Automatic annotation (TrEMBL):
GO terms for biological process: glycine biosynthetic process, by transamination of glyoxylate. PROSITE patterns: AA_TRANSFER_CLASS_5 (PS00595). Belongs to the class-V pyridoxal-phosphate-dependent aminotransferase family. InterPro entries: Aminotrans_V_dom (IPR000192), Aminotrans_V_PyrdxlP_BS (IPR020578), PyrdxlP-dep_Trfase (IPR015424), PyrdxlP-dep_Trfase_major (IPR015421), PyrdxlP-dep_Trfase_small (IPR015422), SP_NH2Trfase/AEP_transaminase (IPR024169). Its cofactor is pyridoxal 5'-phosphate. The modification N6-(pyridoxal phosphate)lysine is found at residue 187. It comes from Akkermansia muciniphila (strain ATCC BAA-835 / DSM 22959 / JCM 33894 / BCRC 81048 / CCUG 64013 / CIP 107961 / Muc). Substrate binds at residue 331. PANTHER family: ALANINE--GLYOXYLATE AMINOTRANSFERASE, AMINOTRANSFERASE CLASS V. Gene3D superfamilies: Aspartate Aminotransferase, domain 1, Type I PLP-dependent aspartate aminotransferase-like (Major domain). This is Alanine--glyoxylate transaminase. The keyword Oxidoreductase does not apply.
Length: 357
């Protein structure tokens, strides 16, 4: 029996989308490749609420996080971390020799607009990196309020990790003024892992010109220039198979309706939060909860691995806590293909297995 995934990636992929991957190869310099890639970008713009250019990368999301901080930082990056994935962005920056500082919040707490203002008021930074949705703690950062602060700093390039929320949460990329929004295929987009997506604003593009060492594979400027010059064909050979799947999945998302999709995620999130309140407790600050996954404190000190084994026998799998939060928390993802029925099914199974009252 296949196990239905309630882990925060990879997520469930619809059978017809998986089947689309078995289509025949095409030349990546063909007219058909241009048409496919242009169609994908146009549909992604509607989901990411942007008019900016879309860049695709054959890598996981981390690749474009690297591309973003490295290609856009001419001076110094301020990296705001609310958990494991923010820490990772700092590691990426230092590993690439990009001058940067990290500003950490306590686990379960957001990055505040005050923190961003305090850092930027020093005048030391020309780039900020913010996690939209921290998959280790279940925090969704107050990006609207952060956007207000950023209006005071028009020259700062804003990079945002929306790997585990884009296409599930409503993110107003352009209205907020996000310059580079990064996501991956295997989370709320509900595709197999293997490709990453980012937006690139004109401001970010112009910035890249003043960064001498942008690397090669993840150089956002060179990717952008190539797709302009070659009608949406990429610098290197992309994963054509995932593009077939993406093309179909984006059409399925359009059929559902982008707003309906966001509302479905919100409804699942509300359901899981109130279930967690009844039997355990929600880990993160209540005012800043993720719409695509809920991190639940293990207040009953249950054996999470053994719970998961029992769930797997019933054809479901949840996520243990991430990193330091392993066994102290567990995670139920409510993103991508999952529905309210799936939420009822996993929560009632947990109640049944643990004989919760
Ligand atoms: C999964 C995840 C990543 C890493 O993405 P990959 O596609 O695995 O490289 C980065 N940030 C967040 C918030 C994530 O959830």
């Amino acid at each position: 029996m296949a196990t239905k995934l309630f882990i925060p990636g990879p997520t469930e992929v619809a059978p017809e989308v998986l089947a689309a991957m078995s289509g025949p190869m095409m030349g990546h310099r063909s007219k058909a490749a241009s048409a496919l890639q242009r169609r994908i970008s146009n549909n992604l713009r509607r989901i990411l609420l942007t008019e900016q250019e879309i860049l695709l990368s054959t890598s996981s999301g981390t690749g474009l996080m690297e591309g973003a901080v490295r290609s856009c930082t001419a001076k110094r990056a301020a990296i705001f971390s609310v958990g494991a994935f923010g820490d990772k962005w700092y590691k990426i920056a230092t590993g690439n020799g990009v001058p940067s500082d990290i500003f950490k919040s306590e686990l379960g707490q957001p990055t505040t607009p005050e923190m961003v203002d305090a850092a930027l008021s020093t005048g030391k930074y020309d780039t900020i990196c913010i996690t939209h949705n921290e998959t280790s703690t279940g925090i969704q950062n107050p990006v609207e309020e952060i956007a207000e602060v950023l209006k005071k700093y028009p020259d700062v390039v804003w990079c945002m990790d929306a790997v585990s929320s884009a296409a599930g949460s409503r993110i107003e990329t352009d209205k907020l003024g996000v310059d580079v929004l990064v996501t991956s295929t295997q989370k709320a987009l509900a595709l197999p892992p293997g490709m990453a997506v980012c937006t690139l604003s004109q401001k970010a593009y112009e910035r890249t010109a003043s960064v001498p060492n942008r690397g090669c594979y993840f150089d956002l400027r060179s990717i952008y220039d190539t797709i302009q010059k070659k009608d949406y064909q990429y610098t290197n050979t992309p994963c054509i198979s995932i593009m077939y799947a993406m093309d179909l999945q984006l059409q399925r998302i359009m059929q559902e309706g982008v707003e309906n999709r966001f509302a479905r995620h919100e409804a699942m999130a509300e359901f899981v939060r109130s279930w967690a309140d009844e039997y355990f407790s929600v880990f993160a600050n209540r005012d800043h909860l993720s719409c695509t996954l809920t991190v639940i404190s293990n207040t009953r000190d249950i054996d999470i691995a053994s719970l998961n084994n029992s769930l797997i026998e019933r054809g479901m799998q949840l996520g243990n806590g991430y990193g330091d939060l392993k066994n102290k928390t567990f995670r139920i993802a409510h993103m991508g293909e999952l529905t309210m029925n799936d939420m009822r099914s996993i929560t009632s199974s947990i109640v049944d297995i643990l004989k919760l009252k």
